Fold this sequence. Notes:
- By secondary structure, the protein is α+β, with helices and mostly antiparallel strands.
- Helix content is 43%, strand content 13%.
- It is elongated, with a radius of gyration of 30 Å.
- Strands 1, 2, 3, 4, 5, 6 and 7 form a seven-stranded antiparallel beta sheet that branches. Strands 8-9-10 form a three-stranded antiparallel beta sheet.
- The protein folds into three domains: 1-124, Transferase(Phosphotransferase), domain 1 (Orthogonal Bundle), CATH 1.10.510; 126-310, Orthogonal Bundle (Transferase(Phosphotransferase), domain 1); 329-445, Orthogonal Bundle (Helix Hairpins), CATH 1.10.287.3700.
Amino acid sequence: xxxxxxNQTLMACANLDVVGAMPERxxxxxxxxxxxxxxxxxxxxxxxxxxxxxxxxxxxxRTNATCYLKxxxxxxLPVARLYDVVEAWKKIVHANIVQLREVFLTKxxxxxxPSIVFVYDFxxxxxxxxxxxxxxxxxxxxxxxxxxxxSGEDRPFSAGKGTxxxxxxxxxxxxxxxxxxxxxxxxxxxxxxxxxxxxxxRILVDGDSRAGRGKSRIWVSGVGIADILDGTINGTVHxxxxxxxxxxxxxxxxxxxxxxxxxxxxxxxxxxxIVQRNYSNDxxxxxxxxxLPSNTxxxxxxxxxxPMIGARFYAQIDNSHVxxxxxxxxxxxxxxxxxxxxxxxxxxxxxxRPEHSINHAWSETGDRYILKLFRDFIFHSxxxxxxxxxxxxxxxxxxxxxxxGSHDKICLTSRDxxxxxxxxxxxxxxxxxxxxxxxxxxxxxxST
Length: 448
C-alpha cells in the first residue's frame, strides 16, 4: 500500500488552471506542478534561506525522472563561479539526504530577473516533521497538556497533574530520528560540509512513523542552498558545523517535548524537566551535550553521541532490514503481476486478429482456436445458472499453470457447446509459442 501511495503521488497531476499558469518548460524540465501548500505559484519568503521561494514537481525531459525544483527569486548569483560549491554538494549521497542534482539560472518563469533553481530528487508521499508532530489540533485531541501557556510562558508543573502525555513521541521513535539525523550529520561533517538546515520544516518523514511502528524514514531537504547562496564553503564551515550540532540538540529537544518553542532559552529548564520525567537519562544527556555550551576548548563532534545511542543502534539496523524485506516482498509481487500482464498482452495481441479471418491457417483445429477457447475458459467462465464467475484466484492460477507449461489437463468448450477438447497446459503453452512466433515473423517479414 505504501508503494501504491507513492506511485499515485508521482503520477498526480495539477488542475488545468494551475498548469496554464506554468511555463511549458524550464531548462530541461517540463510538466511543472506547484507544491506549496498555500496559493499555487504565489512566492513566500523562506525563513531558512531569506529569499522568496517556490517549489515544484517536474519531469526531466530526457530521463523522464520526477524531480523537485526549488526556485529562489531575487538572487543574483554567478552560478558558473560557484562550480566547486555545487559539485561538492552533488557528490553527497546518503540515505537520509535528498540529493542535489543540479543548479541553474533561468528566465523561463518570465521574470524581470532570473531565478536560481535547485534540482533535487523527488521524495513522494511524505511530510515535514513540523506537520507530522506539531499539529496543534491533533495534540489537543489526544489529550496532550501543553507545558506552555498561549503567551509562551512556562506553566507550573502542578497545572499539568492528572493530564495525559499520550501525544509525546515514543522514546524508540525519538531514537530512530537521533540515529538517522546523526548519521547524515556525520557524513556531511566528514567532508567537511555543514547541513545548515536542521529544522522542523526542512526534514521530511515518510508515511510509516505516524503509527509509531518503528519504521520511520527521514530525509533532510534543501542541503547546499545556504552554502551556494553564500558563495563559499570555506572560512566559516567549522562554525557552521558547530551550529549544526547545536541545531541537532535543539531539534531533538523539540521532538521530545512535543513543542516547537521548547528549545527557546526561556523554556529550556521546563523542557529538560519534561525529558527527565518521560525519557531515559541517555536521551537527556544527549540533548544537553549538544544544546549547551562546552566546558572545554575541545570542539564537539557528532561521534560523541554514539555512547548515548549505544545498543539502540542495533534496533535501527533491524528496522531497516525489516523495512527492506517488506519492500522486497512487495516488489516480488509486482514482478509477478508484471509477468502475468505481459502474458495477457501477448495472448490478446494474438487472438481474433482481422487479418487472420481469411487465412487458411485459422481453423477450428488450429493453435489459435484452442487458445481462443482457453481465453474463454479463463475470463468468460459461467456458473450453473449462467452467472459470470469473477474469481481472480482462478485467473491467476490458470495463467501461472499456462506460463509454466503444467501437465494438468482442462476441458475447453466452444461457445456454442459443439466442440469439447481435453488439453493440458503444456499443450496450450506449446501452441501459444508456435502461434506467437508466427505472428512476430509476420510482423517482421510481412508473410506467414
